[in-house]
């Protein structure tokens, strides 16, 4: 009998796609390193340095022998306490340190939450456009993502009616993100409450991603669902982290907050997967959360200025429709009016092809909407310097106009 040829890569991992946003960012950086004058709108990463007091806390931690050894898998006790205090301060959500698990960035929190909650075949309602990692984390955990499509005509907001229409007997979790990556949409408090009450009545869990909570504009606020719907708290997991608020994307500190049994189970998983998050990064996070929000406000003001510039310049391009984002640091314009048009001898039929044309012709990197479950759109981050932002948008406008 001939030996059976086994696949080199498991079907589970082979089915996972590369992060499109990181791929675009990596390509842009590689081209810049090769001498190309590329302007990248791809990565969701603040261009500001981490504030000095946070860096100083990390330097001190490097010299502390306690930080040279293993620490609890669930996080430094002082960081878990700081996260609980910060959550009460910023969201009015009262939780205990035992309800907190410190993770290697928000991505690990998202995956571990799904791995803890889902059994094979369980469905997760996923409003689209969605962050590229969400469906991959769901699938890796054995779940089935069920997109609930929204578009610019509704401000990228999913309604209770849409969610109910997508719900089946296999539905276990709703993924909720406000402010949204990639659209910048922020759900009004009344809508957050309506969706939360629907989830309670339907008996499903909610995983709510609040990583952009402080980055809101024009006087809006981002309501935390378990605060406006207290009855949901026992079936809700909150994901957050220091990356966006404190310009700490590379420090890799995130967390999940949930019922004690869920957090304990997820901590058991993490104890085998990675053990504790880097102690130096955790010490830096403690300093960030215990400090004031003055540096955060400075960054928010800069993002707001860039947001207004980007929206104005995109709206001036024929064939581009750009709703005004109220949160995060992304614009998500529709470019459907440009598809099928001939541009420098090329006729892009998809937003992927249009993104490739922009990189080839004017050396501007953007992320196509296909990566977010929304063909016909582009995502542009305005978390880059004012001069680069204006130059990059000027190149796009010159090419497309």
Give an overview of the whole structure:
This protein is α/β, with parallel strands linked by helices and 401 residues long. 41% of the residues lie in helices and 12% in strands. The protein folds into 2 domains: 11-49 and 295-400, Alpha-Beta Complex (Aspartate Aminotransferase, domain 1); 52-290, 3-Layer(aba) Sandwich (Aspartate Aminotransferase, domain 2). It is built from 14 helices and 12 strands. The chain has a 7-stranded mixed beta sheet with strand order 2-8-7-6-5-3-4, sandwiched between helices. The chain has a 3-stranded antiparallel beta sheet with strand order 9-12-11. It has a two-stranded parallel ribbon with strand order 1-10. Helix 4 packs parallel to helix 11 (279-290), helix 5 (105-117) crosses helix 6 (133-140) and helix 12 (294-315) packs parallel to helix 14 (386-400). The longest helix has 22 residues, at 294-315. It starts with 10 loop residues before the first helix and ends with a helix. The mean pLDDT is 95.
Average the pLDDT over all residues and give the rounded result: 95
The largest sheet has its strands arranged as: 2-8-7-6-5-3-4
How many domains make up the coordinates? 2
Which percent band covers the strand fraction?
A: 5-15%
Main sheet properties: 7 strands, mixed
Proportion of residues in helical segments: 40-55%
CATH topology assignment of the largest domain: Aspartate Aminotransferase, domain 2
From the coordinates shown, what is the CATH architecture of the largest domain?
A: 3-Layer(aba) Sandwich
CATH top level assignment of the largest domain: Alpha Beta
State the end-to-end CA separation.
66 Å
Secondary structure: number of strands: 12
- State the helix count: 14
Low-confidence stretches: none
Shape: globular
Q: Spell the H/E element sequence.
A: HHEHHEHEHEHEHEHEEHHHEHEEEH
- The radius of gyration is 21 Å
CATH superfamily of the largest domain: Type I PLP-dependent aspartate aminotransferase-like (Major domain)
């Amino acid at each position: 009998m001939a030996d059976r040829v086994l696949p080199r890569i498991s079907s589970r991992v082979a089915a996972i796609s590369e992060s499109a946003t990181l791929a675009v960012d990596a390509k842009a950086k590689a081209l810049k390193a090769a001498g190309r004058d590329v302007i990248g709108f791809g990565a969701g990463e603040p261009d500001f340095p981490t504030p000095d007091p946070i860096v100083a806390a990390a330097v001190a931690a490097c010299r502390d022998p306690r930080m040279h050894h293993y620490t609890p898998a669930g996080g430094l006790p002082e960081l878990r306490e700081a996260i609980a205090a910060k959550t009460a301060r910023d969201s009015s959500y009262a939780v205990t340190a035992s309800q907190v698990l410190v993770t290697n960035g928000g991505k690990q929190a998202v995956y571990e939450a799904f791995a803890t909650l889902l059994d094979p075949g369980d469905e997760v309602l996923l409003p689209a456009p969605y962050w590229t990692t969400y469906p991959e984390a769901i699938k890796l955990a054995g779940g089935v993502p069920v997109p609930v499509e929204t578009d610019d005509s509704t401000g990228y907001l999913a309604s209770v009616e849409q969610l109910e229409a997508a719900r089946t007997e296999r539905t276990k979790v709703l993924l909720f993100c406000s402010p949204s990556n990639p659209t910048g949409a922020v759900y009004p408090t009344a809508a957050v409450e309506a969706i939360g009450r629907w989830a309670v009545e339907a008996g499903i869990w909610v995983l709510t991603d609040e990583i952009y909570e402080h980055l809101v504009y024009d006087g809006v606020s981002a309501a935390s669902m378990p605060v406006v719907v207290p009855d949901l708290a026992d079936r809700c997991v909150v994901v957050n982290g220091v990356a966006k608020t404190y310009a700490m994307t590379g420090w890799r500190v995130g967390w999940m907050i949930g019922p004690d049994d869920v957090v304990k189970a997820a901590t058991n998983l993490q104890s085998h997967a990675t053990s504790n998050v880097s102690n130096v990064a955790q010490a830096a996070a403690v300093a960030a959360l215990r400090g004031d929000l003055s540096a955060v406000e400075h960054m928010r003001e800069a993002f707001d200025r860039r947001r207004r510039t980007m929206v104005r310049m995109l709206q001036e391009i024929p064939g581009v429709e750009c709703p005004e984002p109220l949160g995060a640091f992304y614009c998500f314009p529709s470019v459907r009016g440009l598809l099928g048009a001939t541009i420098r001898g090329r006729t892009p039929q998809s937003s992927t092809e249009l993104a490739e044309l922009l990189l080839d012709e004017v050396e501007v990197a953007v992320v196509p909407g296909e990566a977010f479950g929304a063909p016909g759109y582009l995502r542009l981050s305005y978390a880059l310097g004012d001069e680069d932002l204006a130059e990059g948008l000027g190149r796009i406008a010159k090419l497309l106009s």
